[in-house]
Every structure is written in structure tokens, then in C-alpha cells.
Amino acid sequence: MRLFFALWPDASTQLEWERAVAPLQATLGGRRIPAANLHLTLAFLGEVRGDRMNELLRLGDDLDRSPVFLRLDRIEYWKKPGLACLRPTEVPLVLERLAGQLQTGLSLAGFAVEHRHFKPHVTVSRDVPIATASLPVWPVLEWSAPVIALVRSRPGPAGADYAVLHEWPLG
Ligand code: ATP
Ligand code: MG
After folding, report:
1. Does domain 2-169 have CATH number 2.60.40.420?
2. Averaged over 134-142, what is the pLDDT?
3. How far apart are CA 139 and CA 89, in angstroms?
4. How confident is the model at residue 114 (pLDDT cuts 50, 70, 90)?
5. Which residue has the least CA distance to atom 7 on ligand 1?
6. Domain spans of the chain, in order of start
7. Which of 92, 87, 76 shows the shortest CA–CA distance to 140?
8. Overall pTM surpassing 0.90 (yes/no)
């Protein structure tokens, strides 16, 4: 199964984000990500054998669960993947640490992990046709992430279909 770790918003936050970005999305064009799919990826695992689930659950149990507070204050356009995403201008140290701790744990356990620098983002549109500069989001979306989630991703007719398999509360 295709798995990833993410900071997962509750449904009301997902709707708040969807409403906040709708006007900008309309300007940018592309394919909007449905509210229920909005999330912030911490570590992408790709294909994982089912019998390795326990290792991932133990790894999740060992993570530092300090509160993560974010101010999502801009929309960025990323040219190569052709996407638009919500981002915090300031990346809190606790979030850097959490992603680092996950990456280290995963890599020590022999999972293939991404080695690019962690750039926290919430993808809101894909296949965005026109290049744009960053746009400010006002009012800023202030968010205390409620949980770390281990999520399964399956291809669906209207984009990926996600299922949260396990949650670890933060704070
Ligand atoms: P789709 O690929 O069907 O358009 P998706 O990208 O949302 O949808 P997945 O490819 O399963 O679904 O990815 C799940 C999450 O992991 C998404 O947040 C995605 O941006 C992220 N992700 C996917 N591949 C990588 C990667 N190689 N490195 C880092 N993050 C990734
Ligand atoms: Mg993908």
C-alpha cells in the first residue's frame, strides 16, 4: 500500500482552508483539491508491505508530540509539479524537528525516504496552467495541527483517495 505521514486537519479546518483559497484558485485555474483531501505531508513512504505496519506504528509512537502552530500566510506556485500550495512563511522549529525525527526514524528502519529539504505545504490545486508569483493569504490561516496521521493513498477517479489509518494527537 501507498503510505505517507501527514499533519491532518479536522473537517472544519479543511472547509475553512477551502473557502479561503477559492478566489485565488479561481484566478489560477487548474484542478482544485477537494476539502477532505487537504493535508500537510510530513514524510512520503510510497509502497510499503502490509507486514511493516507495526514498525510504522511504533515509529509514530516514539515521535515528539509537541504542539505545532502554523500561520499559513501565502499561496505559492511551484512550477515543476505545476501546483499551487498554502505555505507558512515562517517554518516553526518544532515542525522542522518533527519532520527530521520522522525522516531519521524511517531511514534507520530501512524505509526509502525523501532527501530533499522539507518544505511544508498544503497542495490546493494541481495542473495549474499559468506561472504566478506568491500571493498573500489574508486573513492569515492560523492553525494548531491536531494530529499526526499515517495515511493510505489510493488512486481514485477524481484524484487520490486517502484513508487515515492511525492518528497521534499533538500537544
Ligand atoms: P495523485 O498523485 O493521485 O495526483 P497525490 O499526489 O495527492 O495525488 P500521492 O501521490 O499518493 O497522492 O501522495 C500523497 C502525499 O504525498 C501528497 O501530499 C503528495 O504531495 C506527497 N508526495 C507524493 N510523492 C512524494 C514524493 N516523492 N516526495 C514527497 N512527497 C510526496
Ligand atoms: Mg502524487
Report:
1. no
2. 96
3. 14
4. confident
5. 160
6. 2-169
7. 87
8. yes
